[in-house]
Design brief:
By secondary structure, the protein is α/β, with parallel strands linked by helices. Helices cover 29% and strands 23% of the residues. The protein has a 6-stranded mixed β-sheet, with helices on one face. A 6-stranded mixed β-sheet has the order 6-7-8-9-13-12, with helices on one face. The chain has a two-stranded antiparallel sheet with strand order 10-11.
Length: 305
């Protein structure tokens, strides 16, 4: 009877090379994720000076701290985001403006298509309670994004913690006889058109929008007496793409969001800032982008007088 012999099969040179390549790719992926997670945790403070022809004299040199897309999820806890604002208090801004998107589902929740709404609302409550002591002499203002759940509850929470909610609403900031307006808008372009009609072209108006999606309407809408009505636009929601590799992104952005992806642009003489935001969507990871807040100094454009 023929005997059966067991043979030890060894990997050939090609097999060993393939394993080495696979191990190298896995190591590279792990290092990339590690770098991305570290990058997501370091929030940069950007500075800009904006010259506005209509700026009233009393507001010349006044500053705005603008933070958007807090996106409380994963490692970005309410305590961590509140600690960030606590450190930023040292900048002594005159105004604080929050640009919406206070919660974000985790990657697991996205994959399971199910979120823990109660836990998300508690995180949001904790965050606003933590930052209630933030000092801004000319006020604290905030808008909401369509993704922000329970808008009525959010409005009450903001009011209770000393923040003026601007949900398709406006606020007048007065210093002596001078007035500066802040207008908060959502995706409702009908309300945006109506908002413009309430102002004259000589009013100084800062518009805070949840997303660049509304910008085409903003730059073409007119004041009550005709002509442009907005003097500065602040927006977010894009996260600057959050993950940019080889020209590709992990986020689904519409055409306007891709056009106004991040940074400063000028449309119809209107300065527009799209911030990359503080937090992340799904996973606390950024590649090719950086989390940021903006410290904006307002100046009168004397050449325009």
């Amino acid at each position: 009877m023929a005997s059966r012999q067991k043979k030890n099969r060894k990997l050939g040179r090609g097999g060993k090379t393939a394993l080495k390549v696979l191990a190298a790719l896995m190591l590279l992926a792990a290092l990339t994720c590690g770098v991305g997670m570290i990058n997501a945790g370091v929030v940069r403070v950007r500075r800009a000076t904006v010259e506005i022809p209509d700026l009233p004299p009393a507001f010349d040199g006044r500053t705005i701290l603008y933070a958007s897309d807090i996106d409380l999820c994963g490692l970005n806890t309410p305590e961590k985001s509140a600690a960030l604002l606590d450190r930023l208090q040292a900048l002594k801004p005159d105004m604080l403006i929050l640009g919406g998107d206070y919660n974000a589902p985790t990657l697991t929740e996205l994959l399971n298509r199910r979120t823990d709404g109660a836990a998300a609302l508690q995180k949001r409550t904790d965050f606003f309670q933590y930052i209630s002591a933030f000092d801004a002499p000319l006020g604290k203002y905030a808008i909401a994004a369509p993704e922000d759940a329970d808008p009525d509850g959010l409005r009450s929470l903001m009011s209770e913690t000393g923040i003026r909610p601007l949900f398709n609403d406006r606020a007048a900031i007065r210093v002596g006889a001078d007035t500066l307006w802040i207008v908060g808008v959502s995706a409702d372009t009908v309300s945006l058109n109506a908002a413009g009609k309430a102002f004259s072209r000589d009013d100084c108006v800062i518009v805070v929008a949840y997303s660049p999606t509304v910008l085409p309407v903003l730059v073409t809408s007119e004041a009550g007496d005709g002509g442009p009505w907005a003097d500065l636009a602040l927006t977010g929601h894009t996260h600057g793409d959050q993950v940019r590799l080889f020209g590709r992104t992990a986020l689904q952005l519409d055409r306007q969001e891709q056009h106004f992806l991040s940074g400063w642009t000028m449309e119809n003489a209107l300065p527009i800032l799209t911030t990359a935001g503080v937090g992340c969507e799904g996973l606390n990871l950024r590649l090719g982008t950086e989390p940021e807040v903006w410290m904006i100094t307002l100046e009168r454009d004397l050449d325009a007088d």
